């Protein structure tokens, strides 16, 4: 029987319907094949069915409606004049200039590396090993956002006093504020080029005095807002690429600069909009991104993204400093592999109320406790099911664990059961 080309294949939704007919008679092998097919479709443009790539015509772009196409299909749909295009799935009109890079897919392609490979192996499925050792006690209490409500979210933070959650994402208004019950209270930080506009948010934190602080990779700045959405301060201290940030109990901000390889301490009077100091507290780091401050000990945890050699995949390193910035613990992906057999690629870090280091891992799609700095590292999976691509992590004042899942554009709140 002749094999159909990609252009001759029926749409994936049609193939999915045919596959579900008579589903009760399907074998486990057929079910696993269908699951693999669904996962692999994440890496293909749903218009041309060509695999996404990091550059050129195959680079995945996000439309304002939330659907993702490759750059080639965006150009083809826009036509020769490149004025307007219609989303082939929801029919919403937009201009090519309104598209943006689909960061979760680009990060996944980076994780897969030039050599490619199956998605299942890239995500490091442990065949149930992690789940078998996972302790009971954390249950999903609340799920917020979702496709269209949040677009490629990149950072999440909890207000220490009110319990509100601030989320940075790629929508028209870059910051969403959710109440403890899950209701969206406010949206602010519009996409634009003005001084207080946000071009591309990378991370967000909330200070103890109630200000939302955002790193903007678009113009390499740090911007602060009150909870009403009014811009109060924009800091441009010669940053190369400010990325992760977290607030101390004194409302200072610890900030990473990924390109400069540095860690900064930023102090400001946010109510008056006055910068007091911005000093380098650690240098010679390797592409530091996520950062967390322990609210009890003052310890600082940083995730470094180590550069890969040749065609090999990059790895990550979790580094712990004391409050005085003395190195007290460090472990890279290779060392963690000695504790846990699957490859670990850490994307976010936080401290729980006991001072233990918690990280998200996109390989096993899990949240893992690495223990206290003095016993670092141990290995204790906290969440091993229900996550797609966890990129953000924080704790609320009542000790609920908040995970930002960029894979399905949602915020998932877990509490003790």
UniProtKB/TrEMBL annotation:
Pfam families: NHL, zf-RING_5. It catalyses: S-ubiquitinyl-[E2 ubiquitin-conjugating enzyme]-L-cysteine + [acceptor protein]-L-lysine = [E2 ubiquitin-conjugating enzyme]-L-cysteine + N(6)-ubiquitinyl-[acceptor protein]-L-lysine. Gene3D superfamilies: TolB, C-terminal domain, Zinc/RING finger domain, C3HC4 (zinc finger). Residues 45-91 form the RING-type domain. Keywords: Ligase, Metal-binding, Repeat, Zinc, Zinc-finger. Residues 1-33 are annotated as: Disordered. NHL repeats lie at residues 145-181, 185-228, 385-417. GO terms for molecular function: ligase activity; ubiquitin protein ligase activity; zinc ion binding. The keyword Zinc applies. CDD domains: NHL_TRIM32_like, RING-HC_malin. Coiled coil: none annotated. Its EC number is 2.3.2.27. GO terms for biological process: proteasome-mediated ubiquitin-dependent protein catabolic process; protein polyubiquitination. InterPro entries: 6-blade_b-propeller_TolB-like (IPR011042), NHL_repeat (IPR001258), TRIM-NHL_E3_ligases (IPR050952), Znf_RING (IPR001841), Znf_RING/FYVE/PHD (IPR013083), Znf_RING_CS (IPR017907). It is an enzyme of class 2 (transferase). One of its GO terms (cellular component) is nucleus. The keyword Transport does not apply. This is RING-type E3 ubiquitin transferase. It comes from Brachypodius melanocephalos.
């Amino acid at each position: 029987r002749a094999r159909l080309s990609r252009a001759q294949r029926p749409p994936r939704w049609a193939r999915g319907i045919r596959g579900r007919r008579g589903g009760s008679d399907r074998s486990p092998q057929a079910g696993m094949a269908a699951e693999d097919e669904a996962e692999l479709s994440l890496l293909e443009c749903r218009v041309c069915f060509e695999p996404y790539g990091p550059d050129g015509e195959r680079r995945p772009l996000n439309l304002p409606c939330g659907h993702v196409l490759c750059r080639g299909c965006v150009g083809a749909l826009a036509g020769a004049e490149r004025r307007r295009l219609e989303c082939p799935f929801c029919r919403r009109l937009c201009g090519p200039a309104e598209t943006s890079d689909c960061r979760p897919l680009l990060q996944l392609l980076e994780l897969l590396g030039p050599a490619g490979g199956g998605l299942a192996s890239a995500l490091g499925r442990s065949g149930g090993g992690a789940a078998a050792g996972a302790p009971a006690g954390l249950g999903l209490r609340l799920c917020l956002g979702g496709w269209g409500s949040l677009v490629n979210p990149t950072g999440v933070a909890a207000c220490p006093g009110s319990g509100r959650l601030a989320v940075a994402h790629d929508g028209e208004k870059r910051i969403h504020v959710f109440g403890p019950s899950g209701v969206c209270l406010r949206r602010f930080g519009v996409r634009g080029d003005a001084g207080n506009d946000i071009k591309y948010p990378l991370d967000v934190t909330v200070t103890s005095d109630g200000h939302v602080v955002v790193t903007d990779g678009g113009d390499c700045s740090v911007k602060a807002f009150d909870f009403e959405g009014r811009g109060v301060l924009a800091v441009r201290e010669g940053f190369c690429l400010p990325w992760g940030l977290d607030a101390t109990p004194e409302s200072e901000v610890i900030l990473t600069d990924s390109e400069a390889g540095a860690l900064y301490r930023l102090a400001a009077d946010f109510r008056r909009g006055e910068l007091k100091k911005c000093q380098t507290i650690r240098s010679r780091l390797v592409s530091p991104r996520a950062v967390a401050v322990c609210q009890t000990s003052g310890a600082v945890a940083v995730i470094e993204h180590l550069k890969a050699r040749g065609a090999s995949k990059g790895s990550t390193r979790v580094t712990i400093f004391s409050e005085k910035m003395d190195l007290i613990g460090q472990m890279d992906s290779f060392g963690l592999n000695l504790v846990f057999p699957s490859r670990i690629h850490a994307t976010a870090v936080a401290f729980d109320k006991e001072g233990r280091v918690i990280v998200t891992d996109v390989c096993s799609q899990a949240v893992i406790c690495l223990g206290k700095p003095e016993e670092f590292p141990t290995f204790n999976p906290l969440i091993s099911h229900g996550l797609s691509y966890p990129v953000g992590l924080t704790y609320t004042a009542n000790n609920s664990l908040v995970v930002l899942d960029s894979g399905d554009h949602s915020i998932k709140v877990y509490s003790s059961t």
